[in-house]
Every structure is written in C-alpha cells, then in structure tokens.
Design a protein that fits this description.
Radius of gyration: 40 Å
Distance between the termini: 102 Å
CATH architecture of one domain: 3-Layer(aba) Sandwich
Shape: flat
Structural class: alpha+beta
CATH topology of one domain: Collagenase (Catalytic Domain)
Length: 613
C-alpha cells in the first residue's frame, strides 16, 4: 500500500513537470523540429520557443538569457541596528506674503493749529571764552576708528599748535567688525575738558606710528534702554531689503537701485517706499527750530514769521494726499542763538560744500538737553531770512539718523538762504515751497530732473521744480508710491491686453474724490508709462503751463538726479520746461509700441484710447 502511494506521487510530480510550458531538451537548434506550438526550452544560454513555420513546427532563433547576479543568502545572527539620530527637518524659509495696507479714508487727517514750544531755549555762553568751564571729570575714552594689534597706544590732546600726551592705554577692546589679525582698539581714563581736540597715537616703538583723526571731545551720555530699543527698531526698518516686499499689483514696480537698504538709502522711485521715511498716513508731529549766529542775527518774531510757512507745508501735503496726512507744527518762540559764526562750517553757496553734519551736531549738542526732540517725527533747523547766500546758500533734507535723548531725528531739513532767495525774486510762497520740496525728500522722493541742469519731467511738480509760480502738485506715480492713490484709481493695464484698443476716462488728479486718476502700463519690469489728467487747482496755476493729459515714464533703474522721470511731449511741443507738453483733444503719442490718443477733453477729465501693436 505504501509502495503504490509513492509511485502515484511520482507520477503526479512528473505530470506537473511535463505540463510546464518550459521544457529542457538537449541540443535544441534553431529550425529543428518540435512537437507543440508554444512550448519553450532553454539550451546553451538561449530560450527557444516552438513556432509554426509553413506546415511544420520548428524552434525559433532563440533569445539570449541574461542571468541576474545573485548573491547567496547567508544566515547569520543579526546585529542590532542602532536607532539613527533623527535629522532635524530644516525650517523652510517663509515665502513673503503681500502686506495689504488699508488706505485710510480721504480727509481722515486734519492738522492742529501751529503751536508754540512752551519755553524759551537759551544757549549758555561758551565757558572757554568766559573762563567759567567746570573742572573736567575723569571718564573712559575709547579709540573711535581703526583696527589694531595690541601694541603701544597713547591718548593725546591739542594745546595751541602742539599735541601732548595725556595717558597711556589701559586696555584694549575687541571690535567685531575688525579682522581677526588686528581686532582691537585701545582705551584709557582721563579728565578732558569738553571741546578739546583729542587724538590717539598707536605705535610700535622705533618702528612705526599711526594717528587717528582728531575730534572734539565731549562726555558721552549713557544711552537709555528705551533709546536703544528705538534704535534697534529703526535699524530693522532701515535694513529691510526690497525683497521682503511682495507686490499686490503688476504696476507696483520694484526699486532697482537699492535692493539692499540701510540708513543711507533715503530715496526711491520704486516700491517699496523707504521704511524710515515720514509716514504716509495720519498726523506728523513736526518741530521748527529757528537759529541765528554770532555773525547773522534773526530780527523777526519766529512764531509770527514761520507760522505761514508751516501752514503752507501742511496745506500742500494734506491736499496732494487727499487729506490722508497732516502736519502738526510746533515752533520755538525765539531764535536759538548759537555761540559760533555760521561761516565756521564752510557751507557757503555751493551745493554739497561744507560740514553740514558737523553743523547739525553742534546744534544738537547745544539744545538736546532743553528740547525733547524724540517727540517729533520731523525737525527743521531754519536760519533767518537775513542769511546771505555767500555764507549758507543751501540747506539739505535730513534723511539720516542723529541721536538725541530718548531717540533719534531722522527726517526733516536744514534751511539755508536758498529758502528765501526765490521769494525775494518774485516766486510767491517760495519759502514754504522750498520746505515742502525738502520734506518731499523726507517722504522718499527723488529730485525729478537731470543733475539740476536740465528738465526731464519739466515743471510738473514740486520735486522737479519748486521755484515756480506755475504747476507744483506732485504726480500720480509718486502719490501711488505713498499709498495716496488706491488700485482702483490708477487703472493698471498690461501692454498685452491692449491689442484691442481700450477706452478710459481719467478724472483730474487734483480733485479730491474716488474717481480714476491715472492709467499705468508697465513697459517692462523696471519702467512704467503713466497718463494723468492735469487741470488748474488751488495749488496748480496754469497761466503759462497748458492743461491736458500729462504722459510720462518712470525708470526704476535710474536714481537721484539721473532724469528717471521723462515727460512724453505732445506733437509740436517745444518748451524747454515742458510747459506745452500735455496732450490735448485729438493729440496722439506712441511710446514703446503703446499709442495713447485723447478723444475727448472736458473741464475736469480726459477720455483716452490706448492700444498696443
């Protein structure tokens, strides 16, 4: 019984093997006879299949069999696999998201009446002249520049025309910004009278010596924690790169001049507005500090004289912002009499000449303890109208930080005789127009001409021409950059969408309403075409200038005084100041393939057709 079962099992296994579609035969050759179509076998490294050829069944040519490289499996006692230390998942860099700024309603900011500072500011007489200087107290004095190894160092002071040693270095401070091979600066302790010229001598005896630049010594007042926090916040704003801004419209072209920003980035034609500039919305607290000098004495009552100027500046910005920003001015009640002649700083009559920063520092050193500058967002140091052009013929905007008790001054202006020159030569309101122009820089706007030598935009705004009785309202692009025009008001249109002409009706830029004020067309990622309707207003006098549709381009790759704002003239325009450049009904111009035609002009609007080929 057992034997018969074994035979039966062998038969079953053999039957399974034979029924397999793959059989193995010896010496199979291509073309040789086979018995069943579809059978296959392997021979000499090839797989042969039985196929029908005519009426016969034969083996095909065969296919080479590629054998996998098999590694034998060896059974071993497994070694425990250590648990790997998880690799931290890197935190992805967040993608900036658009910061949607809610633009305040029109007419939301109203200026307070011009105020008078509550007390008189008097500068003490120079104690060195009256021999009343208090005895100096001992204080730590650090070298203020350079990077050195630890060699020999001596603090010196100037006495007459000679330099004398005061004290040897008592220690060395490591400076983070210095190279690791020479990372130190010396310090010592000494009693020095304020105003004394000092310098450091760093040397290797008998080998070499180096002298720092001399500077006037003044006791450094410790900075409060609040002031340090304010500076840190300002540092962050000042250094915020352009890349953090995410446009919410194709017309918000990005600034191409200063992608990396700092305190010395003060102006921009492109987005975003420089973060440390005067805010675009709300009430701006501003202070006027009237100054006179030993050689130029002010004769007017400062509050009476400067109030109309302050009101003019406020009216200008409140008007062009459609009531979204206002200036609350305070004026010191008397001239602050400085104890030096203005000629000391060599500012003279050439733009860029003299030590303006040193002049501002002298003012702050003398007044900081009596004026709470940190309360104000803009500060103006203004000289008397008696100032001659030869002594101080120019005065620039303030756009870099100056430390004061409790904070910083970073916006405002320093007045010179140029503030009064044009008023004395027939330009109405030239004093406040000068101050409004410099305040425009404090808002972040460029001078919109070429090198103060030739017009590129022409007399179409305070930043291109402030000494005029004609048109001074600032253009639509600059208002858009400040956020004073909403997206619905600028008619942002792509060039590609103009294959079929589009029609727009543009309301006069000067009118304070919610209507469309411009059409803006990006010509590239760095250049925009703007069309705006210009009509007479409380600020714009069109006596010489002709009303119409102003068409111009703004180039984000061209910086201060580079002529990046360019007016496109109407046919037949010849005025060097572009007074006749605005398009009138029936006029047409083409710029980079975009054609703009004025089809209808009314008292307060222009209807235009725009197409692109």
């Amino acid at each position: 019984m057992i034997k018969r079962r074994v035979v039966a099992l062998l038969f079953i296994v053999s039957s399974i093997a034979i029924s397999s579609s793959e059989l193995s035969f010896a010496a199979v050759k291509a073309g040789g006879a086979c018995t069943k179509a579809g059978q296959s076998t392997t021979s000499s490294g090839k797989k042969f299949t039985c196929i029908k050829s005519g009426k016969k069944l034969v083996w095909d040519k065969g296919q080479v069999i590629i054998k996998p490289d098999v590694t034998p499996i060896v059974q071993t006692t497994p070694t425990p696999t250590p648990t790997p230390t998880p690799t931290p998942t890197p935190t992805p860099t967040p993608t900036p998201t658009p910061q949607l700024i809610v633009i305040p309603a029109r007419n939301s900011a109203t200026a307070a009446p011009v105020a008078t500072y509550p007390r008189t500011i008097a500068i003490a007489a120079n104690c060195s002249v009256t021999n009343s200087c208090p005895a100096p107290t001992s204080a730590r004095i650090d070298l203020w520049e350079g990077c050195h190894a630890k060699v020999e160092a001596t603090l010196q002071k100037q006495v007459g025309s000679n330099w004398i040693d005061v004290a040897q270095a008592t220690g060395w401070s490591a400076i983070k910004s210095c190279d690791s091979t020479t990372p130190f600066r010396p310090f010592t302790t000494a009693a020095i009278t304020n105003g004394t010229l000092i310098r450091w001598r760093v040397y290797a005896p008998g080998a070499w010596e180096w002298f720092s630049k001399p500077k006037e010594y003044s006791v450094e007042v410790p900075v409060s924690a609040a002031a340090l926090a304010a500076r840190a916040a300002l540092d962050k704003l000042a250094s915020e790169p352009v890349s953090t801004f995410v446009p919410t419209s194709p017309c918000q072209l990005i600034d191409q001049i200063t992608p990396r920003r700092s305190y010395y980035t003060d102006l921009s034609a492109g987005f975003p507005k420089v973060r440390t500039r005067i805010k675009s919305y709300g009430n701006v607290k501003a202070l006027i500090v009237p100054l006179d000098f030993t050689d130029i004495v002010g004769k007017d009552n400062p509050v009476t004289y400067f109030t109309p100027i302050a009101e003019g500046v406020n009216t200008y910005f409140n008007t062009i912002s459609y009531g979204r920003v206002a200036f609350d001015f305070t004026i010191l009640p008397n001239y602050v009499h400085m104890d030096f002649p203005i000629s000391k700083y060599g500012i003279a009559n050439t733009v860029g000449a003299g030590d303006v920063a040193g002049y501002r520092k002298a003012i702050l050193d003398a007044t900081n303890s009596q004026i709470n500058y940190a309360e104000y967002e803009a500060v103006y140091f203004l000289v008397p109208k008696e100032m001659p052009m030869a002594l101080m013929g120019w005065g620039p905007a303030i756009t870099a930080p100056y430390q004061v008790d409790g904070g910083y001054i970073i916006n405002g202006a320093t007045g010179g005789a140029d503030m009064y020159f044009n008023e004395q030569h027939g330009i109405k309101g030239a004093t406040w127009k000068w101050m409004a122009h410099e305040t425009g820089h404090a808002f972040g706007w460029y001078d919109e001409d070429y090198q103060h030598q030739s017009a590129s935009l022409g007399n179409w705004g305070l930043m291109s021409q402030s000494w005029t009785n004609d048109v001074i309202e600032q253009n639509a692009w600059d208002r858009y950059l400040q956020g004073w025009l909403e997206e619905s008001q600028v008619g942002c249109t792509s060039k590609s969408s103009l294959a079929t002409a589009k029609v727009f009706t543009i309301n006069a830029l000067s009118l304070n309403n919610g209507e469309q004020k411009a059409v803006m067309i990006p010509l590239s990622n760095s250049k925009i075409l703007v069309a705006e309707s210009r009509r007479a207003s409380t600020l714009d006098n069109f006596g010489r200038t002709k009303e119409g549709l102003l068409v111009y381009t703004v180039d984000m790759t061209i910086g201060q005084l580079g002529g990046g704002y360019v007016t496109i003239r109407r046919p037949g325009s010849t005025s060097p100041e572009f007074l006749d450049a605005a398009l009138r009904q029936g006029d047409s111009v083409t710029i980079d393939g975009v054609t703009i035609t004025v089809t209808t002009s009314t008292t307060n609007s222009d209807t235009i057709s725009i197409s692109s080929r």
